[in-house]
Design brief:
Strand content of chain A: under 5%
Largest sheet of chain A: 2 strands, antiparallel
Oligomer: heterodimer
Helix content of chain B: over 70%
Number of domains of chain A: 1
Largest interface: A-B, 43 and 40 residues
Shape of chain B: globular
Strand order of the largest sheet of chain B: 1-2
Structural class of chain A: mainly alpha
Radius of gyration of chain A: 19 Å
CATH architecture of chain A: Orthogonal Bundle
Shape of chain A: globular
Radius of gyration of chain B: 19 Å
Number of helices of chain B: 13
Strand content of chain B: under 5%
Strand order of the largest sheet of chain A: 1-2
CATH class of chain A: Mainly Alpha
Number of helices of chain A: 11
Distance between the termini of chain A: 49 Å
Order of helices and strands of chain B: HHHHHEEHHHHHHHH
Number of strands of chain A: 4
CATH topology of chain A: ABC transporter involved in vitamin B12 uptake, BtuC
Order of helices and strands of chain A: EEHHHHEEHHHHHHH
Chain lengths: ~290, ~300
């Protein structure tokens, strides 16, 4: 077996694969954050909580309603996205005129409510979601063994990410959304329902988080805290990519997953902190973030 | 001004009498330590307009440094507290240099991420005891003279520290330095055009706030006799925001009042409602942000002005 720095190549590739899977989740979550921030100016602290809620929705759907994985992939984000829209209508809407920091604090409170509720209802021990039959097992590529489900996660997430990018940057709906951000009152004068647009944007961003939660359910332990440990990493990813930059969120999400995977091979103790170190370096060298404009 | 002096004298006298009333002294001390933490946080958020989402990093680092000095090095109480505050100040300088490069929400996210970095370092580093934390930290004797073993002696030390911090923050806010900070908070560009090097002012405020937060952490270690990871955790950072928000951002008395309410809620509510405490705190957060942005003291002050 060939080795690099005394580490077998198969181990390195395996860790890179895991890193890429993590990166796929970082990308999807930071994408949702970037969309919500870019279009509404809200830093959505509750993103991790909705990610966890997506996982739980899929899990409960499977256990009690017989909703299979593929149905869950559609239904769970819809349900959680709807909840997001209700929260935007009832709570977030009142804060658009005040300092954006209040939006951050409000969504933090929402995160506490959702996570505390899940914890109280399901405990913190965690449950597992079975891998769907069609994606069980692994393929031997010769140089490494590739679990089918992980490959699916990467493909699905990259597709969703670039689909979202295309929707916002290249379609008429996206142009309208960007116009709403640029000058809401003017767009409203043209007869576009801007408040509805904002509700849909928040719901869409939340649905992305929930979709990531469903995708993650079979590869991780589903616990109420699964989101809160991830959300700070994702915040760092968004800062690195440049706040509000959609492409930045996708690229730095995937990239940082890989860097984290590499660190696990070379210096495992630092794997938890490497993202934050990269963030500090980026802030010193390029305060606006890698893809940010300023 | 006269009424204010009388008010403060009465407040200090009441606080000094509390050990006589039979309230559990450790609870009161914990409350005062967190009140110091909240007041230091208010110096940053209320008077300099910077929302840090990672202030527990300073609180916890100082707590660990003090615990480490007491247990491993057998340093005196004074030295251990000083060491804790210094550790917090140095960390404040390092984090501050990076964080003040961004404003507003970005600042919040950067401090959050860097505090998480500190958390993981505390989890892995050999001198923090990892998941177990540092246990069995004694109290020793202040300057080798005054033994702090009794809760009463310790209580008066913590109370004195709180009064000192409170008076110091008042002094800072009313000083020319504090006025510049307020000017920066209100209009950064104008402050620049008036010739102030705003980054130096912001950094100074950040380090000052971090050091005072560290004092709160150091004292808490002495009071409880242990340090755990929860002292550096994100939830501790969030708690101090809640205390300040609930009591009133940018009011002198608000953060201390907020600390009293939050600590009391956690202490007594968890017996009644169990795990729902997190949910209730979340609801308070949401309610504060939506309906009560001035906080209790801010709302009272406004009401008093109207009457």
């Amino acid at each position: 077996m060939t080795e690099i720095f005394g580490v077998p190549v198969a181990v390195i590739l395996g860790q890179l694969m895991l890193g890429l899977v993590n990166g796929a989740f970082y990308a999807m979550l930071s994408l949702g954050l970037a969309v919500i921030f870019g279009m509404m100016g809200v830093v959505n602290f509750a993103h991790g909580a909705f990610y966890a809620l997506g996982s739980f929705a899929a899990l409960l759907g499977l256990q009690f309603l017989g909703v299979n994985y593929w149905m869950g992939l559609v239904l769970a984000p819809l349900a959680v996205g709807l909840l997001g829209m209700i929260i935007e209508r009832l709570l977030l809407r009142h804060l658009y005129r005040v300092d954006p920091l209040y939006g951050l604090l409000l969504t933090f409170g929402v995160a506490l409510i959702v996570e505390g509720g899940l914890q109280e209802r399901f405990g913190s021990s965690g449950q597992s979601y079975p891998v769907p039959a069609a994606l069980a097992g692994a393929v031997n590529l010769g140089f490494m063994i590739l679990p089918k489900y992980r490959a699916w996660v990467i493909v699905a997430s990259v597709t969703v990410c670039f689909g979202t990018w295309f929707l916002i940057e290249r379609t008429r709906l996206g142009a309208t959304l960007r116009a709403a951000r640029e000058n809401g009152p003017l767009l409203q004068a043209f007869g576009v329902n801007v408040p509805l647009l904002l509700t849909l944007t928040y719901g869409g961003g939340i649905a992305l988080a929930a979709l990531a939660g469903v995708l993650a359910a079979p590869v991780i332990l589903v616990t109420p805290q699964m989101g809160s440990s991830l959300v700070t990493v994702v915040f760092a990813v968004v800062v690195i990519g440049g706040m509000g930059s959609i492409l930045g969120a996708i690229v730095s999400g995937l990239g940082l997953g890989v860097i984290e995977g590499f660190t696990k091979v070379i210096y495992p103790e630092a794997s938890n902190i490497v993202v934050y170190v990269v963030m500090a370096l980026v802030l010193i060298l390029r305060p606006a973030g890698l893809f940010g404009k300023e | 001004m006269r009424t204010r002096t009388i008010f403060y004298t009465i407040a200090v006298a009441c606080a000094a009498c509390i050990p006589l009333t039979g309230v559990y002294p450790v609870f009161m001390m914990k409350l005062l330590c967190l009140a110091i933490f909240a007041c230091s946080y208010n110096l940053l958020l209320g008077y300099s307009g910077m929302l840090s989402f990672g202030h527990a990093a300073f609180f916890g680092t100082a707590a660990y440094a003090t615990g480490w000095l007491m247990t491993v090095h057998r340093s005196g109480v004074g030295m251990s507290i000083l060491g804790g505050v210094l550790a917090a100040a140095v960390l404040g300088l390092v984090i501050g240099v990076v964080a003040i490069r961004r404003h507003g929400i970005y600042f919040a996210m950067v401090t959050l991420a860097l505090a998480q970095l500190v958390y993981f370092v505390c989890l892995e580093a050999p001198f923090t005891g990892g998941e177990n934390g540092l246990q069995g930290v004694g109290r020793g004797a202040l300057f080798g003279l005054l033994p702090l073993k009794s809760d009463i002696a310790m209580y008066y030390l913590v109370l004195a520290a709180f009064v000192a911090v409170f008076a110091f923050i008042q002094r800072v806010v009313h000083s020319p330095f504090g006025q510049v900070l307020k000017a920066i908070r209100e209009n950064e560009r104008r402050a620049i055009s008036l010739g102030y090097d705003i980054n130096r002012y912001k950094l100074a405020a950040f380090v000052l706030s971090a050091s005072l937060a560290g004092l709160g952490g150091s004292l808490k270690t002495l009071v409880l006799g242990f340090v755990t990871l929860s002292d550096v955790s994100q939830s501790a950072s969030a708690e101090v925001i809640l205390m300040t928000l609930l009591g009133g951002i940018g009011t002198f008395f608000g953060p201390a009042l907020g600390a009293a309410i939050v600590v009391t809620l956690q202490e007594y509510l968890s017996d009644i409602v169990g795990g729902w405490v997190t949910v209730i705190i979340g609801v308070i957060f949401v309610a504060c942000v939506l309906t009560f942005r001035r906080g209790i003291v801010g709302a009272l002050a406004r009401f008093a002005k109207r009457v």
